[in-house]
Amino acid sequence: MTETPTSPMLSRVHTSAPDTDSAIDRTIPEFPAATPIDEDNYFRLHKPPPYLSQISRDVAEFINFHHKQNRKVALVTSGGTTVPLENNTVRFIDNFSAGTRGATSAEYFLENSYAVIFLHREFSLLPYSRHYSHTTNCFLDYLAESPDGTKVEVDDKFQKKMLVVLKKYRYAKDQNLLLMVPFTTVHQYLFTLKLIAQEMSVIGYDAVFFLAAAVSDFFLPSSRIPQHKIQSKEVGGKLVVDLEPVPKFLRRLVDSWAPIAMIVSFKLETDDSILIDKARAALKRYNHQLVIGNLLQTRKKQVVFVTPEGERWVKLTPPQIKNRIDIESILVPEIISMHGDWIQSRKEIGL
Ligand code: PAZ
């Protein structure tokens, strides 16, 4: 069982979990999938992030390195995107996601011999460091003074587990298996996703897309974003925000950016009565291989795999929950096995 230090000084109250009884269900009809014209308009009318060429170089180098060694590559997206309300951003709209699903899954892909591009919300949870960064009030709780009082050491209670994590982290780092690529805004996410997808086309069906990030459904187009902090006197004391739908680029990813890769997307809902229908509708609309449905309230204990063949729940058992088993340790190997079948099926039809 995982040991977590507690600090007597700070309360263990969590403020980030919404009141799920009153959370809003997204029962409004889904917007249609993005067309090539939507793609052209979006990427023409919005400025690419200035660092994109550097990411392009890093990603190309990383993919070539692993391609030469016949290693499969997973793109794991993780964390929520923001929608800035001002160019010099003071206010923004955020999307729920701590990055647990993505960071944890990345570790299991690495453990199963994949290389991982980790496209994540900057400052959300990261593979390996996630064990220590958000689990306690302060990382210093893991440390202790050496017996002679001259050095800092890892507290004896945490030695064993930290050594295991450290070895895995060092291995991934030394073997160049993990490439970290950050985003904050939804525009940064979309530009970077498109770029990485196109770079990954070099490895064709050896690529798997694991899209766990929570991507904004609505945004404020660049043409309507004010340059500076909105002043209350400019808006008559009341701020009315008029957002546009974010084009549903998953269809472009499937059809054009990564047409032979295996693509897994996630669907988050809060109302269990609509989860499977929504996941199935997404699978039909985007025409990819797998949608994993999860509910905000139970996402760490159960998920549902929705494929063209049917649906299947993956649930942690009570002993697994007690022993704090990561549900990702079950779902990632299942996806890897499906990826193997996907590769086989592509080979059989000569792709
Ligand atoms: O990052 P986290 O572990 O807190 O949450 C993961 C999740 C619920 C954001 C993810 O599993 C998911 O469902 N992503 C897709 C969200 C969506 O429907 O857009």
Automatic annotation (TrEMBL):
Polar residues composition bias: residue spans: 1-19
SUPFAM superfamilies documented for this protein: CoaB-like
GO biological process: coenzyme A biosynthetic process
InterPro entries: CoaB-like_sf (IPR035929), DNA/pantothenate-metab_flavo_C (IPR007085)
Any one GO molecular-function label of the UniProt entry: phosphopantothenate--cysteine ligase activity
Stretches assigned to the DNA/pantothenate metabolism flavoprotein C-terminal domain: 204-300
Region (Disordered): 1-23
Similarity remark: Belongs to the PPC synthetase family.
Protein name according to UniProt: DNA/pantothenate metabolism flavoprotein C-terminal domain-containing protein
